[in-house]
Amino acid sequence: MFLRRTLRLSLVSFCLIFSLLKLPAARAELQPLDRIVAVVDDSVILQSELDRGIQLADQQIKQRNIAPPPEDVVRTQVLERLILTRIQTHRAQEAGIKIDDRELNGIIENVAAQNQLTVPQFIEELKGEGMDYQTVREEIRDQALVQRVRQKEVGSRVVVSDEDIALYLSSQASADDTEYRLSHILVAVPDGANSEQREKARARADALLKRLRAGESFAQLAIANSDGQQALQGGDLDWRKGGNLPTIFASVVPKMAIGDISNVIEGSNGYNIIKLVDKRSSGGRQMVEETKARHILLQPNALRDETATKELINELYERLKKGEDFATLAKKYSDDPGSKNSGGDLGWQPSGVFAPEFQKQLDALAPNAISAPFHTQFGWHIAQVLERRSRDTTDETRRSRARQAITQRKENEEYDAWLRRLREEAYIEYRSADGSSEADKNGSEKTDKSAATPKKS
To answer: Which of 137, 140, 192, 363 has its CA 20 to 30 A from that of 282?
Structure first.
């Protein structure tokens, strides 16, 4: 323990010295330092990180048309989020999980594409918002690490059995076709909390419910008081299927009307209050159009160049037109190992399974028609459509959705418990502007989240 403490202090001292060295000597007394606001295990959270997080949180709050809460409330919530992220990235490092620069570049390309931007345009957008690209890049790396370690530590342990699916379908038959939009406030209690701690948490939840029933804004109270992961979004849980709801909400939400606020709901994580913002039906039969097709694929190789390959595919096409058997030619000549031995048969497949160029050729063929030779990224093809059908996949889709819903619900519950354990095991020390510090005592009583100086959360 002494060694770990020494390492922490050494790291803090190094960061302070490094900040001083970065300042020009003539202005060292005039320019403020990027001070430390919290120590998390063997790393630190800086004021600049906190300021940037507050800026982003303020933007999110404005976009949701929520009246801005006091600055110290947002500060406390953002700092807690930074602490949780840091704890999880530490766990990822301990587990040997890494996101290298090549993989990170791919993630950033996807983020830019989702915003209909190229990477250079994405960088310019960040600059326009006054944000540093390298800083955002590392924050994206952290989020990727968090997702990776969550999957390894939590998701990989979640098992959904056929019995789980059958029980879900029998008990959630009506809820499965309904989606709910909920807002949520959580007053958390630590693992192993004693009766006094639970009573005080329950009293806080009861007081919040009373204020909600008196007409105060749910979103504002969530931002200021909730311990949930969506606190800075006003507690918004977004749209969720009935089966995706946390277990403790599943029996409550279907009985609520839009606008209703629940009573306090006790769970293993603490005390919950939910509001039903909206609901919608997503029912109906699920029909899928499928095509049964086969093909011959030829690829250039060491003995046959591109020109010779094209000549051979054209020769096979002429032989097919003269009546030779498609399956026989496919078995003899096709270079597709997955379909060659079955005469080129690709089975029944829904639209969109194949590469776009191949799918386009299939869609243009009538049953039993054979395509002229065409080229894709895989080589030269001749394709034939054998049959088409519409298939009712409602039951199959319901089972697939049930599996996804159960998996998500179990993973969310496991993740909350896992994250609480990580936080309680971590060393956290808060640093105030005057340099004084306060260690976060594991298992200590939760303080008012609106306090100016963050304490236990």
So the answer is: 363
Given a contact cutoff of 8 angstroms between Cβ atoms, the answer to whether 109 and 119 are in contact is yes
Res. 206: pLDDT tops 50: yes
Collapse the DSSP code of 443 into the 3-class scheme (helix H, G, I; strand E, B; otherwise coil) and give the result: coil
C-alpha span between 197 and 106 (Å, rounded): 46
pLDDT digits (tens, 9 = 90+) for 419-456: 999 999 999 999 887 767 776 654 333 333 333 334 33
Domains of the chain: 98-150 (1.10.4030.10), 174-284+396-425 (3.10.50.40), 288-392 (3.10.50.40)
Share of the chain above pLDDT 70, in %: 86
pTM of the model: 0.57
CB atoms within 10 A of CB 231: 27
Cβ-contact 415, 150 below 8 angstroms: yes
pLDDT band at residue 75, thresholds of 50, 70 and 90? very high
DSSP of 254-267, one letter per residue? GGPPTT-B---EEE
Question: What pLDDT shows up at residue 447?
Answer: 37
**Spatial CA neighbour of 251 closest among 274, 281, 283:** 274
Is the separation of the CB atoms in 229 and 186 below 8 Å? no
Strands of the 270-281 sheet, one edge to the other: 236-241, 178-188, 270-281, 265-267
